[in-house]
Amino acid sequence: MTTPGDTAIVMTRSFDAPRRLAFDAWTKPELLVRWYGARGWSLVVCEVDLRVGGAWRFVQRGPGGTEMGQSGLYREIVPPERLVYTEVFDNQSYPGESLVTHVFTAAGGRTTVSSTVVYPSKEARDIVLAYPMRRGVAESFVRLDEVLTAQMQGDTA
Amino acid sequence: MKPIGSSLSTHERLDATFAALADPTRRAILARLAVGEATVTELAAPFDMSQPAVSKHLKVLERAGLISRGRDAQRRPCRLEPRPLKDATDWLENYRRLWEERYQALDVLLDDLTTEEQKQQERRQEGQRGA
Predict the structure, then answer these.
(1) Given the DSSP bridges, would you call strands A98-107 and A82-89 parallel, antiparallel or unpaired?
(2) B15 and A126: CB-CB below 8 Å?
(3) Which end of chain A is less crowded, N or C, counting CB atoms within 10 A of the terminal residue's CB?
(4) Of A83, A71, A79, which is closest to residue A116 (Cα–Cα)?
(5) C-alpha A97: how far from its chain's center?
(6) Phi, psi dihedral angles at A80 (to 5 degrees)
(7) What's the average model confidence in pLDDT over B43-54?
């Protein structure tokens, strides 16, 4: 992961699968719901209108039923090479939309996916980067609550 | 996603850290200080730069909390302060880890899909042989 310039985040990862399947995993709702959630969050709404100008919308549900929605429009769709779309979070605290570009490169049966997110401002990028940290903290408190509740039940039993 | 009111100072600190790191001379100074403390004269030596120019860079690093200066009025040796660097890398690491968790779930999914496809292909071949 790198943060070139003031407004971008670039992440690159290699997957042991052909490019076609990796592209499908990023664009088919029935596949997206199987992996996109993380850290106790799951994708409960996943709508994909896969055509240029078509809309997408995800809603993730996390610990305690908290929901987080994000949506955008597809800008470029070149299966299985390239996917570009805009992204806006429902409750984002900064103005403007981000532009997300995924480039799928095949090499020896594997696929490298390079994802670039360009944020509307430096502040926006920094808020997004700080966000998973806050989410992580919230979740550890939920886990702590569970542990404490379990222990209290153990004490009274 | 609201900005984190209580951690505004954290944001400001991170801003200062990343701004201070966004310069090759300052990164070279930090690399030198990672080996041990040094005076301004010692730090200026490897660079084609005047001592006042180096002092300017040191002020930026000091403001960001990345270095501290000794009390000795004459030498004022510079010392690396590891804490803000660690905060900055932890912060990036946290974001990377979130995505790594997603990617690991994707690894499992892609493995499932590849296996499914292979099975389908085998069944098709068996069907052709049977016909």
Answers:
(1) antiparallel
(2) yes
(3) C
(4) A83
(5) 15
(6) -105, 35
(7) 87
Please say if the pLDDT value at position A16 is more than 80. Answer: yes
**% of chain A at pLDDT higher than 70:** 79
Residue B97 structure tokens: 């880890």
The residue type found at B62 is: E
Q: Within 10 Å of residue A146's Cβ, how many Cβ atoms?
A: 11
Tokens 């100008």 -> residue: A53
Structure tokens at A75: 């800008």
Among A67, A129, A137, pick the best mutation site for testing chain B contact (most B Cβ within 10 A).
A129
Q: Enumerate the domain spans of chain B.
A: 7-130
- What residues in A contact B1, CB-CB < 8 Å? 68, 89, 91-93, 127-128, 131
Q: In this structure, which amino acid lies at residue A11?
A: M
| Exposed e or buried b per residue across B99-131, where buried means at least 16 C-beta atoms within 10 angstroms of its C-beta | bebbbeebeebbeebeeeeeeeeeeeeeeeeee
B7-130: in CATH 1.10.10.10: yes
Distance of CA A94 to the CA centre of its chain: 18
Q: Are A100 and A117 in contact (CB under 8 A)?
A: yes
Complex-level ipTM: 0.72
Q: Which residue of A has its CA nearest to B99?
A: A38
Which residue segments constitute the domains of chain A, with CATH numbers given?
8-156 (3.30.530.20)
